[in-house]
Amino acid sequence: MVPDPRSPGPPGSGRRNPAVDGRPRRAGADPIGPPPLGPLGFGAASLGNLYRRVDDEQARSALDAAWRGGIRYFDTAPHYGLGLSERRLGAFLRERPRGEFVLSTKVGRLLVPNPAYAGGRDLAHQFDVPDDLVREFDPSESGIRRSLEESLARLGLDAVDILYLHDPDAYDLDRGLREGLPALERLREEGLVRSIGIGVNDASVAARAVREGDLDLVMIAGRYTLLEQPARDELLPLCRERGVRVVAAAVYNSGLLATPMPAASATYDYGAAPAELIERARELARTCAEFGVELPAAALQFPLRDPVVASVVVGTAHPDAVRQNLARMRAPIPQELWDALARRGLIPA
Q1: Which of 62, 116, 186, 250 is a good FRET partner for 302, with 20 to 30 A between their CA atoms?
Q2: Share of the chain above pLDDT 90, in %
Q3: Would residue 80 show up in a list of annotated catalytic residues for this protein?
Q4: Number of other CB atoms surrounding residue 85 within 10 Å
Q5: Quick check: is 267 in a domain?
Q6: DSSP label at 247?
């Protein structure tokens, strides 16, 4: 397991799930309670050919680098490459002891045949794969059960540990929460998954899901980072109050914080970064450099300073980048850096 860089203190909170019936499809070594995630998780969107094509050998090399480095939490979704990410991740994890890793995938989108398929690619969704399938929003209980079953078939595994309701606000938030959250709760009660949550990019959407549901986890992408912390206002306090663990994803803000000094061509939220954000990121980088710390290392470790954050998930299909992320998570960061960032108004005091 990757060492946790946090100073000694209270661990991230998490509820223990009700006792379950112990059916054989249950995942993991500990049948009750939240699965341990570790401070650094592997996000498998890139294995679905996000932005560019990746061959099977490179995808496997990235996963092997993660495993060798001690990463044991892996996250995927049907959305990522129209199932390609799940297939590649499953092929790798099937060769590992099931009790030694934690796996999450997502529900709310079904993959169905594309009646208009004519040899095109899924580039409109930023995945370089054939668009022979299309995504269909279905947060109903039957849709979520079907999504789980189809994910398990692609993964080639009997169970996943965690199910997230994926981006319901991209379709119909009211329906997604009204139908999807109770459906997830029933799957947990039946012992088909250990933990349930929501995975979104909007902190207010995540906070609403925590208020309206009985969640174990929230995966929030890009909204609790060294650059910006809108999740701090409502979502994190609510999660602390409710005993919901937080997984921080997209902590590099789609690349803006991924290099020691952000370039003018840096990206933010999957598009060109505005000039004012580039300058703010550069100010963060200059302050980090004063203390001998690289900006990406501070970006990786910042979310974990709040005990409610259980894990940081980053994704790459490059094995060298995986190893670099592992080194950055282990890099020593003096408290004086955080103090200086706070004094300069770059992070909350």
Answers
A1: 62
A2: 89
A3: yes
A4: 31
A5: no
A6: E
